[in-house]
Structures are given as structure tokens and as C-alpha cells.
Amino acid sequence: MTVRPPTPGELQRLLQREGLQPRRSLSQNFLTDGDALDSIVGAADLTAGDRILEIGPGLGVLTRRLLAAGCEVTAVEIDAGLAAYLRREIGTEPRLTLVEGDALGLDPQELYPEGDYKVVANIPYHITSPLLHLFLGCPNPPSLSVLLVQREVAERVAAPPGSMSYLSVFVQNIAEAAVVARVPAASFEPSPDVDSAILRLIRRPRPAVPLDDDRDGFHRIVQAGFRQRRKQVHNGLSRELPLERPVVEAALAHCAIAPDRRPQTLTVDEWVCLFGELGPPLASMPA
Question: What is the pLDDT along the chain (287 residues), one digit of tens a residue?
Fold first, then answer.
């Protein structure tokens, strides 16, 4: 059964009736756009039996759609008032597990020790980056993530070479990233200060740098490059890493990277090549 989101007026009356107040500190902006909800559900490629983690279910509009598709849903809500509402309204659904708590305190390995799962959520915007690091940096990342996030963040994550950042390299090492649709601020109540976008992440069969290949060392090199993003890559890496300039220049030459390029122009594969050259001499040095 299709569940539509409430209109702004319906939402305001519902919140008033329940004695709830949107909390800016928790990035509580409730979706009132049916087309955006349809886009999220469509991008999730839902199949009956899918295991879904939803972070920040709010009033449960997306949760209901996930349950209607036959999914097994674990919904994590930090707001006690909203959690109480969800328990009363849909808590008896047998395929729903409602967790009241902070999503950043979750251990993906404990939730899903084996097998695939998906993350589908209108996530709290102030914890977007920590959530991406938590789930994409774990040994068992979700097979698919469909996230409603700030438009600027979605575009940064999915950016092509030329507009890359540390976050885009981090994410694209693990998953293929694409912006599915833009969602204007007017699609929420209350309206946030910025537009949003639906970000779709499909886990790669094998990360460019697997977790057991000193991924922290890979991140260290990428971060070093982007700390000096306005400088040429040979200057930035030489300044930020405890390596002699000839070592950095030799690594760039081996990877066929012109030393005067800017870090945002490098592809994930080029960063991986630099890690292969610079990682070993860095491994024995303090961070």
C-alpha cells in the first residue's frame, strides 16, 4: 500500500497533537514531498525480504513504505518522543525492529554480522560525514545506500575528477556514487536552509584499497594531499608527509601524475597508485 507523506499543514497538526517540536539540533526536517519519497524508494531497488537500516525514521513515513515492500526494517531514532510515537503507531509490525538511540553508537558488524543489508534514510544532516565513515569504513559495508542529504554534500561525494575532495575519494574507494535527484528545501517542514539531494551508493565488489591493506595509511596520504588543495600535488604531499621531496616526486612519476596537478583532479586509482608507492616508507613512521 502506498503511503504518502503528510502535507505541511497535516504535519504541523500531527506534531501539535503529539506534543512534539522539530529539534534543529537533531536536524529534524520532515519530508512532505511525495515525489521525493517515491524517488528514494525507487532508488533502493526494494525486494521482499531485504534487510534495511533506516536512520532517523521520524514519523515513520519512509518506514511504512519500506515495510509495505516486504522489507525487514531496523529503524534507529534518537528522539524519545518520536520513538514513543513510532512504538505506538507501528511498533507491532513483526518486520520492524525499533531502536531508540544514537546511530553513531551502532556497530554494523553486530547488526549485520553476515549477509547483505541496505541503508535507506533521510539522515540527520549534521552527522552525514560520521555516518558515511561508520558504515563505509566497516568490514561489512551496506550493499546499497540511498540517503537524503544536503545537496552540496551529495554532489561532493559523487564528484568526478576535477572536483574531488577527501570525502569523495573516501566514499568512491568503497562505492559507486551518484546523485539520483535534487530535492528543494520547500519539500520539508520546517524547511532547511539549503536544498537536498538523494545520494545512491552501490558497494563495489572489492574496494580499491581493501580494509586489510592499511586503509588508514591510504587515508593519511589522501588527507595530506587535500590539506593543501590549492597547491600543486607535489608541493602539498611534500609539505604534509614526513618524506623527502625526491621520494614524492619519484612516486608521482611512477604513477604518471604530473607534479603540477591539483589534488582535486586525481582519480581514486591515481591515489591508490600513490599509496602503493608512498605507503611502505610511511608505514614505519609515526602518524
Answer: 457 888 888 888 988 898 888 888 878 889 999 999 999 999 999 999 999 999 999 999 999 999 999 999 999 999 999 999 999 999 999 999 999 999 999 999 899 987 899 999 999 888 999 999 999 999 899 999 999 999 999 999 999 999 999 999 999 999 999 999 999 999 998 898 999 999 999 999 999 898 877 899 999 999 999 998 788 999 999 999 999 999 999 999 999 999 999 999 999 999 999 999 999 988 877 65
Q: Which of 214, 233, 226, 235 is nearest to 285 (CA)?
A: 214
Beta bridge pairs of residue 175: 203
The set of cell numbers assigned to 103 is 546511530
Q: How many CB atoms lie within 10 A of CB 73?
A: 25
Distance between CA atoms of 62 and 73, rounded to whole angstroms?
A: 11
d(Cα 179, Cα 40) in Å, to the nearest integer?
Answer: 11
Residue 100, classified by CB atoms within 10 Å of its CB into exposed (0-12), middle (13-18) or buried (19+), is middle
Helices (H) and strands (E) in the chain, counts: 12, 9
**Which cell numbers in the block locate residue 61?**
513515513
Phi/psi at 172 (nearest 5 deg)? Answer: -70, -15
Give, as one character, the DSSP assignment of residue 160: P
Could you say which DSSP state residue 4 is in?
P
Q: Which three cell numbers stand for residue 13?
A: 497538526
Q: What is the DSSP string of 36-63?
A: HHHHHHHHTT--TT-EEEEE--TTSHHH
The number of beta carbons lying within 10 Å of the beta carbon of residue 253 is 13
Residue 250 three-state SS: helix
- Separation CA 213–CA 282 (nearest Å): 14
Q: Which one-letter DSSP state was computed for residue 159?
A: P
